[in-house]
Amino acid sequence: MEISYRTQEKPPYQNAIDRILGWGRKYSIFMYPFVTACCGMEYMSVASGHYDIDRFGAGLPRFSPRQADVLMVVGTINFKNSVVLRMIWDQMCEPKWCISFGACASIGGPYNNYAVVQGIDRIVPVHIYIPGCPPRPEAVLDGLMKLQDMIQNQKHDLFWKRRVK
Amino acid sequence: MTPEDIITRLNERFPEAGLDCRVDKGHAVAVVPVDQLKETLKVLKDDEAFSFDLFMDITAVDWLKREPRFDVVYHLYSTAHNHRLRIKVMVGGNQPVPSASGLWIVADPMEREIWDMYGIKFSGHPNLSRLLLYEEFKGHPLRKDYPYDKRQPLIEETWPSKDVQVRVDDRDIHRP
């Protein structure tokens, strides 16, 4: 499967746009925490004062997918819940990214059974995997900084992109 | 009452029922035939000496090669007398068990869970549908003959994700 974004013409100032928009977007991440399991405790620990995810510009969780940039899947996703997760991902506006938080969301964790999805990358595209059961807050911050690097170095468009299959 | 007293009184109340009662590791256990279960449970709830007013749990065991195949296990507790009783019922694969939801209302979701996981039917249950799994699920996953690696996803899975390449203007971006 190949998803291709094609713009009409590359303007000469594209590199500057990439850098400026990337810089702006990486420091104003609005996260949607899709918290389903015990990793949510670690997420709260990261989000609150001691580790303070707001230092990285991601301190404002939005509980509506239409206002969010980053979908953060925190915890075990089972088949019954996978429909909800996919719907939330489809409702988010571009540009959007996805973080898989913890072992359960990444590969199913210890649960290899009839109910649990073996990794949310079977349902939504994932950009950053954070390992751990649950991950330390430092690991979460490391994953967030890697996502910021990715946002900084990827291509951005001033205008809305047309998706070409 | 002590477990021994419970068993003595059970045998007095149901002399012809064919109960197999014993004390197992300090707990009173009674193995009840399926056709006697409804009357037994009613007496256990209403009798003053028993008064098992708290329906703690109901589980099932799949023995697969035994005949009849399943054990349905009831755990009862009396808040008035602080005593417990475990009741086992042996049922086959398609044999219905009389529902206890008319006596204890909490038995309603618990029996739905047993139906969901083991496929044991409960006759007289008001709404015997799946509790935890989704309606599209085929089979009953805690049966021993359910394939351990069988998956029934609700939406189409894209796997492996390395097949998904995101390209902008023929340039690879944010590969997962």
Descriptive overview:
- The complex is a heterodimer of chains A (165) and B (176).
- With 165 residues, chain A is an alpha/beta fold.
- In chain A, helix 1 runs antiparallel to helix 5 and helix 2 crosses helix 5.
- Helix content of chain A is 35%, strand content 15%.
- Chain A has one domain: Rossmann fold (3-Layer(aba) Sandwich).
- Chain A is built from 5 helices and 6 strands, in the order E-H-E-H-E-H-E-H-E-H-E.
- In chain A, the strands form 2 sheets. A 4-stranded parallel beta sheet of chain A has the order 2-3-4-5. Chain A has a two-stranded antiparallel ribbon with strand order 1-6.
- Chain B has 3 helices and 9 strands; from the N terminus they run H-E-E-H-E-E-E-E-H-E-E-E.
- Chain B is an alpha/beta fold and 176 residues long.
- Chain B is elongated, with a radius of gyration of 23 Å.
- The mean pLDDT of chain B is 84.
- In chain B, the strands form 3 sheets. Chain B has a 5-stranded mixed beta sheet with strand order 1-2-5-4-3.
- Chain B starts with a helix and ends with a strand.
- Chain B has one domain: Beta Polymerase, domain 2 (2-Layer Sandwich), CATH 3.30.460.
- Chain B is 19% helix and 27% strand.
